[in-house]
Amino acid sequence: MPRSRRPHPARAARSARRLLAVALALGLLAVAACSSSGGGAGGDGGDGTADGGARDVTLMLNWTPNAQHAGIYAADALGYYEDAGIDLTIVEPADTGVEPVVAQGDADFGIAQAESLLPARAAGVPVVSIATLLPHNDSSLMALADSGITRPRDLEGRTYGGYGGALETELVKRLVECDGGDPDRVEFVEVGNVDYLTGMQRGRFDFAWVFNGWDALAAEEVQGVAVTTIPFIDHLDCIPDWYTPLLLTSESMIEDDPELVRDFLAATARGYELAVADPQQAADLLLDAVPELDRDLVEASTAYHASRFIEPGQGWGHQEAPVWSAFGDFLVEAGLLDEPVDTDAAFTDDLLPAGAAAGAGGGAGAGGATTTTAGGA
Q1: pTM attached to this predicted model
Q2: pLDDT tens-digit readout, 219-229
Q3: In this structure, which topology does domain 3-136+243-371 adopt according to CATH?
């Protein structure tokens, strides 16, 4: 498995504070107040090119391509964006993070995560989540099966390997304490972008924060190494759920060119519906676009995600206001945000295809427009 192709939940958390510093240095508060051009990198206000051709749109990924992006690559390969009048360019992320790039209009859309979007908004970066790629966080703590780790309190006396971020530390400590363990007995070491499985096998650390649908699959189904996981979703009595990854755009794009946002989301939704219905085809299309990916891992991961991209009874991309507010509260309680953020303004379902919006339990878009409909989870 090419190591550089692994999505890292902990890396995103670590980069959040660096993103704030960059955002402030770039003067994005002024961007929020003064930007009126709209249209982002496409720059055409949603009306296409001068001759009525396709609209140029740039999407910045949160990490290098992986199965979480399968619906996007499927939509691109099958012409769904072209059908919507969009000429899509997909780019890998900037060192400064996705949020500042989208806020400045250097990309029209981006993929990020709630743990970076909320701090960005707290710093005045005018970006809004417009859809989630996964309705639930797929994160887990992973350890070797023979480690004896089966539950959070088993992490006492063990070593965590990660990026050294405050969110990592807070999550691990809360999980251990909530399960009756002593969080002060967990050791934390900063290891960065390493092969976690190899690091555990060599005894450098005992467990790491990973995505179930990538690292855990790579270990067990591709490399044949038995691992055990502690899924975050199984411990929502201790820590919150949150949206990672998600699609975002700028407030100015939503205000100035909502039709382009609707068209982009409708085409993207078609791609994810294909990934749900035919994960093998989605894997093949992703591999056609990014042939250096490990085929066995991509096929296993797209199959894994097929039942997880869309919440039963909801449309693709749907977000819940209580999920956002609970995660925002958690960040404040943990000292990761200095003060509360208006989480209702951080997301909107209003521009999703009708199937997603119909299931909304309430949310607000840029400018504070709130949608409340029946059927929320």
Answers
A1: 0.85
A2: 999 999 999 99
A3: D-Maltodextrin-Binding Protein; domain 2 (3.40.190)
